[in-house]
Amino acid sequence: MNQRDCLIIGGGVIGLATAWHLANAGARVTLLDRQSTGREASWAGGGILCPLYGWRYPASVMALAAAGMRRYPEWIARIKAQASTDPEFSQPGLLILDPLADGAHRTSVDQWVNEYRLRAEWSAADTHFSHLSTDSALWLPEIHALRNPRLLRALREVALSAGVNLIEHEAVHSLWVEGRRVRGANTPEGSLPADCVLVAAGAWTGHLVPGLTPAQVFPVRGQMLRFEAHPGIGLPTVIMDQGIYLIPRADGSVVVGSTVEHAGFDKHPTAEAQAHLHRAAIALWPNLAHAQVAQRWAGLRPGTTDERPFLGEHPTLDGLFVATGFYRNGLAMAPAAAEAMSALIQQKTPELDLSPFRLDRPGGIPPAFPMGNAE
Ligand SMILES: Cc1cc2nc3c(=O)[nH]c(=O)nc-3n(C[C@H](O)[C@H](O)[C@H](O)COP(=O)(O)OP(=O)(O)OC[C@H]3O[C@@H](n4cnc5c(N)ncnc54)[C@H](O)[C@@H]3O)c2cc1C
User: Is the CB of 326 under 6 A from ligand 1?
Assistant: First the structure.
């Protein structure tokens, strides 16, 4: 690759992972975040490495997640070989209670299982845990999980070792555009020149990319809580029921999620939703009744109107790339998305078909663009 200067805006899992891949391929990479890296959705997430009720998603979304899931073991091995932080990648499996509650047919779930070559068993829930009475449960024993705040610390380490120039606590307020070409980004400290720019600013991407708006990439709040480790909790797998999931961590604590709320950029947990999560968690796993809540938080998933990420080149501005809209699955998708974006930025053909994620698809950048700030 010719030595291009790449500027990445946003140090979540997508920006950091792409920066690492690009730097490993020989690019000169600067990554800029308006705060410390890994403090937004990528920090707030649960770390389950499989879409929840994956059969409900568009096939292209599931295919991208499956590509990420397949790459994870090798990806984590490479990260662990270089980083001092352990992302706690494990295989707890995922038990989904009452998977057909939304009216889905078992055949569509079985098709999904077969298409993505997942190991799966149907049974009554009490064959796994005697206190659960649901008639139908789907057990996916090969699903992985990780402790995402630690993955983000590890990615920061490997990106730095690969030579990424990291600038934290500096916000981009606009892109530097001349005619039909992006030249870099503008911050309160001045302008940063670059040959190519990747905007990976999560739920905030719609504020930065000409042609996209905050109505097309928007925040979807998810609230979480974590029970402190307590003798006797003994949760061995991820369990999911009616949208609520419990995730065991290596230290014995249990993370509970989540809500799906359209509340703008407000990241405050609410008493009502937290009480709901707490009640639902104890109903699902009664041993939690004696454990203290150690932490409550909320994060903002980057949503799009068709639940598909925007992943690719800007249709009219040369040198501008976008990777956002990963909604509920950005951790699972990260290895595949980073590999694909790194290839595209290096002017190579990505292994994955990115056409379903084009920026100019219906609901994306309108055909009448450029207007406004690109001119
Ligand atoms: C509660 C919750 C649970 C989740 N659970 C899971 C799960 O179990 N599995 C899964 O796969 N996914 C999960 N997700 C989804 C996943 O976390 C996201 O899809 C993913 O983290 C998105 O990563 P990102 O890098 O695109 O965005 P972010 O992590 O939000 O990163 C964006 C970055 O851009 C920076 N930024 C924004 N604007 C600017 C600017 N103007 N200038 C400079 N920097 C800027 C921000 O500071 C931030 O660091 C969950 C999300 C939430 C909120």
Answer: yes
Distance from Cα 179 to the centre of ligand 1, integer Å:
31
Question: How far apart are the CA of 339 and the centre of ligand 1, in A?
Answer: 18
Specify the amino acid at residue 94. L
Question: Residue by residue, what is the 3-state secondary structure of 147-164?
Answer: CHHHHHHHHHHHHHHCCC
Considering the chain, what is the average pLDDT of its residues? 95
Atom of ligand 1 nearest to the CA of 323: 26
Q: How many Å apart are CA 70 and CA 76, to the nearest integer?
A: 11
61 C-alpha vs ligand 1 centroid, how far in Å?
A: 17
Q: What are phi and psi of 207, to 5 degrees?
A: -80, -15
Find the Cα–Cα–Cα–Cα dihedral 198, 202, 206, 209, rounded to 10°: -10
The best mutation among 34, 43, 155, 217 to test binding of ligand 1, ranked by most ligand atoms within 8 Å of the C-beta, falls on: 34
Q: Does the beta carbon of 94 sit less than 6 angstroms from any atom of ligand 1?
A: no
Q: Which helix (H) or strand (E) holds 6?
A: strand 5-9
Domain 89-143+218-303, what fold?
D-Amino Acid Oxidase; Chain A, domain 2 (3.30.9)
What stretches in the chain show pLDDT beneath 70? 1-3, 370-375
What pLDDT is attached to residue 370?
60
| CATH classification number, 5-43+151-214+306-374, choose in 3.40.50.1580, 3.40.50.150, 3.30.160.20, 3.50.50.60 | 3.50.50.60
pLDDT of residue 238: 98
Could you tell me if the CB of 99 is within 6 A of ligand 1?
A: no
pLDDT of residue 135: 84
Task: Please give the C-alpha separations between residue 250 and each of 89, 183, 232, 300, in angstroms, as whole numbers.
Answer: 9, 45, 14, 25
